[in-house]
């Protein structure tokens, strides 16, 4: 191969990077939106259970495959293949994940561009530049192209710098900033009129709804998207972790951070909606459900900020900067999948490979923008509702059925020598062999039907 690989310099470096990938628009936008449309706290409850009981085991399978392989997703998967068909299977899963990450990035970059444009709007209004503010929120094709390109260049800029100087350094800078902003905003919103009502809608579960099939499916899909599963991202991040680290705890910590931030985002968004209602903004759709999707983020919340007068400009700025940062720490992970593959398999120069791959993905984004009503939903559905669950399931099958049990145990023993006697080792292998593939398969079949 001849290319020197990076490694996270510290445990916290990996945790911040992996949590940075996991925490993104899915947490701050997707999770509260899903909560709003699936009966509030009942969804939160189901989400918490599924994230730890199904998404965490699948997440462990991916980071362990990566750390064992110490290479890009395809080479890592291929490393434990003994037979020719297993190698083909490994290639399919590894490469499929890389394509899936690239496709997600192509539409995610557009959404992230919207977040940046609303941040710029607040800044422009603070500076008194009304014309700029109107243009950046006007929704024109040019506006979309401009901000998507800007966002993609930021992503390329970080990934060109490699694991330690790029991913790790920026995740360590951006994640605490994002968490700080989130907490500040929550504290502020909870003091406003109407927030208490939102809080009780968010925190009191309607237990009768927890077994609704649609709610279960949405919660599982959300948990998989949030932990970036089925995209090769956690395999490649796992490959940069030192053999000295205890993977069982490190994986649990990342899952915990991801779930906690989704929960915190709900504490911000749902009460904000009720505060907006107290100010006369419509927050329920005609069928009585809470407004969700783009209407929530780009209509309800901006109306709320507007109603706060001058202070609202700063609150809006903080909110959309938070969203943009969350998106950036996720997008870098999506780009790392294809870049590490090309650099390691084809001995390519990292800077050039990153630029070229970034531009190819940007070209796909431009194609989506040219017919956004049709293409955005289509690409999102193909990559997140089909690609991610299938590949995540195949990773579990691979780790559970193809990876030899002794070799798997030896890998986990690096950094956790006594794992053989642990509760984790008693149940996890069964989980990835049977429970995860069946549950993910059920979600997939249901979403297809
Ligand atoms: N986990 C990210 C979020 O919740 O927004 C989205 C994501 C990141 C999906 C990386 C896929 C991926 F490879």
Protein architecture, described:
The chain is mainly alpha-helical. The protein has one domain: Hydantoin permease. It is 80% helix and 0% strand. The chain is built from 18 helices and no strands. α5 crosses α16. The chain is globular, with a radius of gyration of 21 Å. The N and C termini lie far apart (44 Å). Bound molecules: 4-fluoro-L-phenylalanine. 4-fluoro-L-phenylalanine binds next to α1, α2, α5, α10 and α14.
Order of helices and strands: HHHHHHHHHHHHHHHHHH
- Uncertain runs are none
Question: Number of helical runs?
Answer: 18
CATH superfamily: Hydantoin permease
Oligomer: single chain
Anisotropy-based shape: globular
Which features would summarize this protein structure in a list?
449 residues; mainly alpha; 80% helix; globular
Summarize this structure briefly.
Helices cover 80% and strands 0% of the residues. The protein has 449 residues and is mainly α. Helix 3 (41-69) crosses helix 16 and helix 9 crosses helix 12.
Secondary-structure topology with pairs:
Layout: H1 11-22, H2 25-37, H3 41-69, H4 73-79, H5 84-126, H6 130-136, H7 141-160, H8 162-189, H9 195-203, H10 213-226, H11 233-239, H12 247-278, H13 293-307, H14 310-345, H15 350-370, H16 372-402, H17 405-413, H18 423-448
Bound molecules: 4-fluoro-L-phenylalanine (PFF).
């Amino acid at each position: 191969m001849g290319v020197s690989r990076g490694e996270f310099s510290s445990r916290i470096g990996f945790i911040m990077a992996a949590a940075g990938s996991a925490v993104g628009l899915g947490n701050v936008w997707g999770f509260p939106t899903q909560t709003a449309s699936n009966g509030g706290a009942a969804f939160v409850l189901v989400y918490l259970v599924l994230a730890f009981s199904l998404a965490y085991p699948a997440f462990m399978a991916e980071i362990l495959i990566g750390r064992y392989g110490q290479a890009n997703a395809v080479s890592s998967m291929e490393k434990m293949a003994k037979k020719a068909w297993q190698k083909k299977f490994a290639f399919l899963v590894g490469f499929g994940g890389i394509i899936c990450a690239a496709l997600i990035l192509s539409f995610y970059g557009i959404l992230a561009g919207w977040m940046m444009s609303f941040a710029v709007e607040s800044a422009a209004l603070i500076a008194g530049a009304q014309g700029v503010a109107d243009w950046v929120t006007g929704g024109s094709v040019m506006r979309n192209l401009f901000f998507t390109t800007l966002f993609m260049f930021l992503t390329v800029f970080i990934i060109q710098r490699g694991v330690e100087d790029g991913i790790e350094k920026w995740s360590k800078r951006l994640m605490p900033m994002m968490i700080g902003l989130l907490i500040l905003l929550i504290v502020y919103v909870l003091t406003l009129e109407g927030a208490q009502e939102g809080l009780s809608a968010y925190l009191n579960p309607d237990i009768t709804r927890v077994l609704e099939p649609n709610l279960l499916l949405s919660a599982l899909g959300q948990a998989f998207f949030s932990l970036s599963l089925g995209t090769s991202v956690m395999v490649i991040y796992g490959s940069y972790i030192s053999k000295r680290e205890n993977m069982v705890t490190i994986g649990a910590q990342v899952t915990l951070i991801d779930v906690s931030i989704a929960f915190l985002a709900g504490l911000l968004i749902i009460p904000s909606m009720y505060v907006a209602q107290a100010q006369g903004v419509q927050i329920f759709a005609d069928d009585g459900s809470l407004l969700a999707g783009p209407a929530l983020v780009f209509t309800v919340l901006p109306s709320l900020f507007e109603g706060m007068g001058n202070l609202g400009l700063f609150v809006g700025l903080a909110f959309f900067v938070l969203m943009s940062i969350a998106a950036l720490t996720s997008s870098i992970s999506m780009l790392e999948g294809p870049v590490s593959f090309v650099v390691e398999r084809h001995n390519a120069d990292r800077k050039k490979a990153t630029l070229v791959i970034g531009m190819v993905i940007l070209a796909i984004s431009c194609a989506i923008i040219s017919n956004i009503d049709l293409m955005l939903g289509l690409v999102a559905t193909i990559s997140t509702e089909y690609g991610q669950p299938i590949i995540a399931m195949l990773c579990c099958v691979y780790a559970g059925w193809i990876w030899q049990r002794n070799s798997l145990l030896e890998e986990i023993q690096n950094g956790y020598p006594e794992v053989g006697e642990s509760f984790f080792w008693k149940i996890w292998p069964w989980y990835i062999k049977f429970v995860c593939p069946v549950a993910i398969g059920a979600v997939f079949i249901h979403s297809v039907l």
